[in-house]
Amino acid sequence: MLTQTTWCLYCCCAGCGTDGLDLPCCFLVGEICCCGGTVKATSCYDQDGCIATSSKCCCCMTGFEYPPDNTPGIGCGPVRCMGNLEGRTPQDCSTVAAANELETYQRTMWCLSCYCCFTGITYDPSPICDQEGKLCCLWLSVGSADCWGDDGCIEVSGKCCCCVIDGSIPAGYTPGVAICGKSLCCANMPVTYQYPDDYGLPQQQMLDQYADMPLDDGSAGAACCGCGSKSPPAQGGYPPQ
After folding, report:
1. Is there a single domain that holds both residue 76 and residue 130?
2. Is residue 7 within 8 Å of residue 181, measured between CB atoms?
3. Domain of 93?
4. Is residue 223 part of a domain?
5. pTM of structure
6. Does residue 171 form part of some domain?
7. Predicted pLDDT of residue 74
8. DSSP string spanning the chain?
9. Which terminal CB of the chain, N or C, has fewer other CB atoms within 10 Å?
10. What does the pLDDT average to over 36-44?
């Protein structure tokens, strides 16, 4: 996002700018110490359905999804019916989101389940705390994160239409002091990795360079065994005179 944004004003740790509409239309990503979250706009009906929520705090697990993909069914405790978690594999799930939550659901002892909504106690240690939900076109996720990431202990990035904001304390990757799209000083931007066999040449120039190289006709090689010669060595008998 730092390299794709024209920064109107940036002062080392925070700033605002405009985007060329190549980023998502609306989103907000933030982290404070060990707590991080994401808010974004999404489709009203996607792989998570229309309404979905999942809450995990330590060993307590609660979920609601309509229509459900993974469900413990209907029942109380081990006495349940219409469930589909037992013996199910990630390949059986219809969406990626369902495949990601399947293992946690299978490691949960469900206390009460009503097909679309359910609660129980899980012994899955990761993540320690995670709150995730979707309502129509709004998707939200809040959970535990690293206390000190690449951009320090406090960071935020967001966009609405073409307006972009970004900040981090202490400053990690930053355009430094920038005004009207020009970085004046203290810039520390991420660099793009370049493969060593590219040599920085345009593709057409590389093709022209290799086109002028002579082709190997197989005439060079070791003469003693004949592997590089055009005619194989004589087989059997005395060598030719």
Report:
1. yes
2. yes
3. 51-144
4. no
5. 0.56
6. yes
7. 93
8. --TTEEEEEEETTEEEEEE-S-S-SEEEEEEETTEEEEEEE--SSBTTBSEEEEEEETTEEEEEEES-SS---EEETTEEES---TT--GGG-SSHHHHHHHHHHHTEEEEEEESSEEEEEE---SSSEEEEEEETTEEEEEEE--SSBTTBSEEEEEEETTEEEEEEES--SB--EEETTEEEE--BPPPPP--TTTTT--HHHHHHHHHTSPPP-S--S-TTTSSSSSSPPPPSSSPP-
9. C
10. 86
Q: Give me the number of domains the chain comprises.
A: 2
Residue 163 Cα to chain centre, angstroms: 23
- Decide which of 98, 117, 144 is a domain's last residue: 144
128 and 162 fall within a common domain: no
Cβ–Cβ under 8 Å, residues 52 and 133: yes
pLDDT on residue 211: 57
For residue 46, the tally of other CB atoms under 10 A from its CB is: 14
124 with 162, same domain: the answer is: no
The answer to the question of residue 39 being in a domain is no
Does 24 or 175 have the greater pLDDT score? 175
Residue where one domain finishes, among candidates 90, 111, 144: 144
86-98 pLDDT, tens digit per residue, is 888 888 887 777 8
